[in-house]
Design a protein that fits this description.
The chain is mostly beta strands. Helices cover 12% and strands 40% of the residues. The strands form four sheets. A four-stranded mixed beta sheet has the order 2-1-4-6, with no helix packed on it. A four-stranded mixed beta sheet has the order 3-8-7-5, with no helix packed on it. A four-stranded antiparallel beta sheet has the order 12-11-14-15, with no helix packed on it. The longest helix is centred in the first third of the chain and has 14 residues.
């Protein structure tokens, strides 16, 4: 009986949000577990997808015509795929990642990956922009904005995957940089910290 009561209490605790988790959920957009893109008729469908940090995008290539999903920044390349083949990639850092088909340059798409924000205290927010520390030439630029002022650098070329930021800094955005492709991702969607 005691075991059942503990199980029920644990389920209730998981289902009922605390005030801190409720406010964090309001800032961090909800995403389904990854996204699916179909590659056919000379298009990526849908052409723009959003995933959460660490989630995957799976591309399916149902046609006999060969296509690729190739990062504009040189981060990934599926190679030629067709006849029902798939390619999946987990997105470990926030940003907006443009891609194309190497065989058909007019075929373009993008993957937007959001930041994770939690509330360790009323005045501090823990902001995570990557699931792993930057390595192999990958770094991150983080910017914050206070009021109507211009965006300012919070971190530049950092390999750190997260930081604590004061609530007065509002909002925050990030982009990934890669030395292998020599390009940056686009900025992530800005997330409000207040």
């Amino acid at each position: 009986m005691r075991g059942r009561l503990l199980l029920v209490a644990g389920v209730v605790a998981v289902l009922l949000p605390t005030p801190a988790s409720a406010s964090a959920a309001a800032r961090t957009p909800a995403h389904r577990a990854g996204a699916a893109v179909t590659v056919e008729h000379l298009m990526f469908m849908p052409g723009k997808v959003e995933v959460g940090l660490g989630e995957s995008v799976t591309w399916t290539f149902p046609e006999v015509t060969q296509h690729t999903t190739t990062s504009d920044q040189g981060i990934w390349d599926s190679g030629a795929r067709s006849a029902g083949a798939t390619y999946a990639r987990a997105f470990t850092s926030a940003g907006t990642f443009a891609y194309h088909c190497s065989f058909h340059p007019t075929m373009r798409g993008s993957v937007a990956v959001g930041l994770q924000v939690t509330d360790p205290s009323p005045s501090i927010r823990a902001v995570r922009w990557s699931t792993v520390k930057g390595a192999g030439g990958t770094t991150f630029d983080v910017q914050v904005k206070v009021g109507s002022a211009r965006w300012r650098d919070f971190r530049t070329d950092t390999t750190k995957p997260k930081a604590k930021i004061a609530v007065g800094s509002d909002p925050v955005k990030v982009r990934a940089r890669t030395s292998s492709g020599g390009q940056d991702s686009g900025w992530s969607k800005a997330v409000r910290l207040a």
